Amino acid sequence: MKLLLLLGLVALAQCSIHRIPLQKGKSLRKQLKEHGLLEDFLKKHPYNPASKYNPVLTATESYEPMTNYMDASYYGTISIGTPQQDFTVIFDTGSSNLWVPSIYCKSNHHLFDPSKSSTYVSTNETVYIAYGTGSMSGILGYDTVAVSNIDVKNQIFGLSETEPGSFFYYCNFDGILGLAFPSISSSGATPVFDNMMSQDLVSQDLFSVYLSKDGESGSFVLFGGIDPKYTTGGIYWVPLSAETYWQITMDRVTVGKRYVACFFTCQAIVDTGTSLLVMPQRAYNRIIRDLGVSSDGEINCNDISKLPDVTFHINGHAFTLPASDYVLNEEGSCSLGFENMGTPTELGEQWILGDVFIRKYYVIFDRGNNKVGLSPLP
Fold first, then answer.
1. Bridge-partner residues for 221, per DSSP?
2. What is the pLDDT of residue 333?
3. Does residue 151 have an active-site annotation?
4. pTM of the model as a whole
5. What is the rounded CA–CA span in Å between residue 207 and residue 377?
6. What share of residues in the chain are helix, strand, coil (percent, to 5)?
7. Cα 322 to Cα 48, 113, 229, 306, 307, distances in angstroms
8. 143, 174, 194, 271: which is the annotated catalytic residue?
9. Catalytic residue list contains 227
10. What is the pLDDT of residue 48?
């Protein structure tokens, strides 16, 4: 085993792979609370994670509610243009477009200035993305996008002219880099990773994600490879059930030993752009009932050790979250990292396996074989 691990590390060092370090930002919930804006925000913008997964209305419209970033966000740095202009972005497996703020809108974030890039190519195309908290609209252009030491040539991306609501002022990131499939891309824009593959910039047609827990550092997205340091517990492969989002079939969900949800299989989306673990309303109600938790998900931090495991049975394997993983503790205030789906989408009452789930597993997103790999983390 030690020899195999050593050989794997040597291969990792030699291959064309590219690691993007991620940092975990202060939650938007906490920032709004610090500025006395949280209560008003929640009244005006009720949380509806389902809206992210509604189909686009036209070729230039897409839905993606940024309230998914209320509780946590992991973001990294990319560069656009020549010379490079830097931006922090969410690496989002639940969407497919790349967009950043531009000089055409008022924003406190980094702004892309196309006049300062010698490689920028303008278009007459527009892009519109609707959020639960407002909307982003803008124009599309082409330029070189640098992700780590990968230079993606002629990458199409959105330059915002309007941004989604005043709350965006408090976000720790500038834009979004979508890592889902071209089939859900607004305006038919080619996703960044698709260009990485077609331009032979990665050694394998896959990328992997590690999200650290609590205040730990070390989170990353690895393009083109799998880091064997995080797969010592084995890799459990799950075939995709759709080539849109990173969608898979779940067999059932149990609380302790009790079978509580997903009785006849159900669909789940592995989504780095969703902070919580989202489920259908009826499943949410049954789970909090079995956990003995109030409907708002708030709990006494001293009760965490008394709560049972929640297990997701996927493709013949059990993926278990102990309470220490599914309860969020923010400065002594504890709540479940679960959320109900709200209004069902056109995709049905699917589940969203967001960061609460991903922090427990090293996840491999394999485009070459259309499957997801899950490796338990210690």
1. 20, 209
2. 84
3. no
4. 0.86
5. 17
6. 20, 40, 40
7. 26, 47, 23, 10, 8
8. 271
9. no
10. 55
